[in-house]
Amino acid sequence: DDVSLVMLDPFVPMLTACVCHCRDTEVTLVALKCLLVLLRSNLPSIPSCSKSIGSKTLSLLTAAGSSLNTNHDLTQACFKTLTHLIGSETKATKGDGVNLDDERGVEGDFPLNAEQMKVLISLIKASITDTDQHNPALNLIKVLLIHRFMSLELYDLMESLMKLVVRSPK
Hints:
about 170 residues; mainly alpha
């Protein structure tokens, strides 16, 4: 099993380069889906690629903007990728990497910086209020809460989510 992991590891930087530099949406989507499979493994090159994957995934979500329904598959893949990246950082830094006194609630090799997290939370909010497919966005919120991420934007998101849950027939 370790041999197969060693053989898969070189694909992480190649797929990361594909996601970061490819202009074709379909190729980017396939590369993200492949990366999702590899993110579930504990491969050595994932930490070195996580910041660039996180930044590019966030920019793909931002490019979708208000049209989160337009390319549903890419949007969902981006949310799932960010969920895995943040979730894997949670497992890696739990205990000694989280500083609760920090206003952001995160320290260490988190894949997104504070400004990027603000953007991400606004995109999560837009996705939850504007689309019918909530699961990937809700899973990302769950990971942020497990990670003990704290920001004013997250509190606003939770208030919006509370109103939505009360009003929604689903």
